[in-house]
Every structure is written in C-alpha cells, then in structure tokens.
C-alpha cells in the first residue's frame, strides 16, 4: 500500500516522499538493509526496540505463535532511502476489534519512530498523521 500526500503541502526538499506499510514478515525483511542504514544515521543509543534486528527476530520467533498478530510497519521513503520507520503491529483480540500497538508488545519496553536526521520531521509526521486518519479500506 502506498499513499502519496499532496505534493503542494510539502516543501521543496521533501518532494517525492512516499509512505508504505509493511504487512508481512517478507515485506519487513525486504526493508532490512535500508532499516539498518537508517538506524546508523539516527545514531540513537536507546532505539533497540525500533531496530530491524529486534523487530524481525520478534516477528520470526514470537509473533508466529500469536494468531491474529501481523506487522504494521509504517515506512516513509525519500526516493530509495528510508527516511522514517514506525514499527507497529495489528492484533485481533478474540473475535473483537484489532488493536494497533508497538511491534513486540508486551516485550517491547518503549516505542517510537526512527527518523533520518536529514528528513523534515514535520513533513514525515504530517504524512503519517494523514495516513492514520484515513479509514482502512
């Protein structure tokens, strides 16, 4: 799934941002190289639970034993470069609603967004907000 935000609402340096959502382990794994590069650019010491290795391993080893749980990793790309990643998951509670939470919950100790220091935070945040405000189709 790809969402393009009205390009007139983005400033010139952010032209071409696109938002994708990884909804399977294969899609998450396909982002691995760029996700790790984003981690390096961020340089955050307290981003372990947002790291590709933590998230992919949690999906491979734990989520497979949790029926109704699927990845929901929001990725904002600038060209071929990953500019932001928000590792989330969807979980169906019995026959009831689906809940969006931090990927790895309850094992994840904290959650957040990995954001490339060179990306425009307000443009990335606006894209994520616009996407999340849409009804799921």
Uncertain spans: 1-14
C-alpha-based Rg, rounded: 15 Å
User: Which series of helices and strands comes N to C?
Assistant: EEHHHEEEEH
| Mean pLDDT score | 83
Helix-strand category: alpha+beta
Share in β-strands? 25-35%
Number of strands: 6
Number of helices: 4
Morphology = globular
Helix content: 25-40%
The rounded distance between the terminal residues' Cα atoms is 11 Å
Largest sheet: 6 strands, antiparallel
Condensed summary:
This protein has helices at 25-30, 32-42, 52-61, 121-133; strands at residues 2-3, 17-22, 69-78, 81-92, 98-102, 114-115. The chain has 137 residues and is α+β, with helices and mostly antiparallel strands.
List keywords for this structure.
137 residues; 4 helices; 29% helix; 27% strand
Q: What is the secondary structure topology, with strand pairs?
A:
Elements: E1 2-3, E2 17-22, H1 25-30, H2 32-42, H3 52-61, E3 69-78, E4 81-92, E5 98-102, E6 114-115, H4 121-133
Antiparallel strand pairs: 1-2, 2-3, 3-4, 4-5, 4-6
Give an overview in words.
The chain has 137 residues and is α+β, with helices and mostly antiparallel strands. The longest helix has 13 residues, at 121-133. The model is unreliable at 1-14 (pLDDT under 50). The chain has helices at residues 25-30, 32-42, 52-61, 121-133; strands at residues 2-3, 17-22, 69-78, 81-92, 98-102, 114-115. Strand 4 (81-92) and strand 5 form a beta hairpin. Strands 1, 2, 3, 4, 5 and 6 form a 6-stranded antiparallel β-sheet that branches.
